[in-house]
Amino acid sequence: ARITLRQLLDHAAERGYGVPAFNINNMEQGLAIMEAAAAVDAPVIIQASRGARSYAGDIMLAKMIDALEEMYPQIPLCLHQDHGNDEATCATAIKYGFTSVMMDGSLKADAKTAADYDYNVDITRRVTDMAHWVGASVEGELGVLGSLEHGGGEQEDGHGLEGKVSRDQLLTDPDQAVDFVRATKVDALAIAMGTSHGAYKFSRQPDGDILAMNVIEEIHRRLPNTHLVMHGSSSVPQALQDVFNQFGGEMPQTWGVPVEEIVRGIRHGVRKVNIDTDCRLAMTAIFRKVGAQSKVEFDPRKFLKPAMDSMRELCRERFEQFGAAGNA
Ligand code: G3H
Ligand code: 13P
Ligand code: ZN
Predict the structure, then answer these.
(1) What is the pTM of this model?
(2) I want to staple 48 with a disulfide (CB 3.0 to 4.6 A). Which of 52, 140, 175, 262 is the partner?
(3) Structure confidence at residue 166 (pLDDT)
(4) Which residues does 206 contact at the CB level (< 8 Å), separation at least 6?
(5) Superfamily name with CATH number, domain 5-321
């Protein structure tokens, strides 16, 4: 059944769990997510980026979600717009059945100027007004969150923003967060807490203190009714990197966010945890493996089925690790 982000995260807050938000672009990813959720009885957030909407097409995407909902009627399902960039993106998402939208007013802001902040407040408040009229939830974002804001994706050298901005700039200011939520009335807030998008988050093994727990805790304490969202939360598992590279891939060694760190975040108010890269890697590592092991194979299902299985296992692990399992 379709539910809003507010309904789902209120439940998560009550029970102290986090919900992974997995990105969807195609049927196989949708099936992987729902099979995993059904296996462990977890509620689901499926999110689609603007890129996903243009890749699959809004009609295809919407009907695919309808089908998944019909196949798994027992699973609460929130369909969320990932990184909406303006009112039109958010309004059309709702029209296609999204029950939640992210208005990412930080996309435009690569410096923390007052003008950027005012722009973010204005546009997010307009989206919140509109979405709340029709019963959809809104996620806003405050803070510089890594490389997506700097030209759409990872840096060319394969690494994120390390060294380019100070650690301080990468953290959301709690006072500003309080002001932002009061002014915009968002249901959930993505904060900058030390992560970035993509596979290349850290060039060394993280030392276990990579998230700004004090910032998370402080914002949560002052905004107990606003659910915190962690973007860039892929863990980039070594085992998947190894399969990818063992079968002809040339992915440079990289480190993501350790699952234990995410779990610590969940203990301090993080409720929505965005994961795309891990799902991509879970599938494409298997494409490489099948392609390398069977050079005559040309049936796409022979690639897609094991890739789907691999993504399903990853999703199932995250539902369990974040405590969402058993909460459908
Ligand atoms: O944060 C962005 C998500 O990973 C979606 O990426 O815009 O390539 O679909 P995309
Ligand atoms: P990852 O690139 O770490 O999977 O983050 C995805 C994300 O934040 C989508 O909004
Ligand atoms: Zn994101």
Answers:
(1) 0.94
(2) 52
(3) 59
(4) 255, 257, 258, 261
(5) Aldolase class I (3.20.20.70)
Q: Are 185 and 207 in contact (CB under 8 A)?
A: no
Average pLDDT, the chain: 92
Q: Which ligand is nearest to the CA of 195?
A: 2
- Sign of the C-alpha dihedral, residues 233, 28, 308, 313? positive
SS3 272: strand
Rounded CA-CA distance 190/186 in Å is 10
- The 10s digit of each residue's pLDDT in 86-112 is 999 999 999 999 999 999 998 775 556
Tens of pLDDT along 42-93? 999 999 999 999 999 999 999 999 999 999 999 999 999 999 999 999 999 9
SS3 46: strand
Would you say residue 165 has pLDDT above 70?
A: no
Instruction: Select from 23, 141, 257, 273 the residue to mutate for testing ligand 2; criterion: most ligand atoms less than 8 Å from CB.
Output: 23
What is the DSSP annotation of 110-170? SS--HHHHHHHHHHHHHHHHHHHHTT-EEEEEES--SGGGGTSSS-TTS--STTTS-TTTT
Whose Cα sits closest to atom 5 in ligand 2? 232
Q: Where are the domains of the chain?
A: 5-321
- Length of the chain, in residues: 328
Angle in degrees, 0-180, between the axes of helices 87-95 and 114-133, rounded to the nearest 10: 20
Cα(279) to ligand 1 centroid in Å equals 12
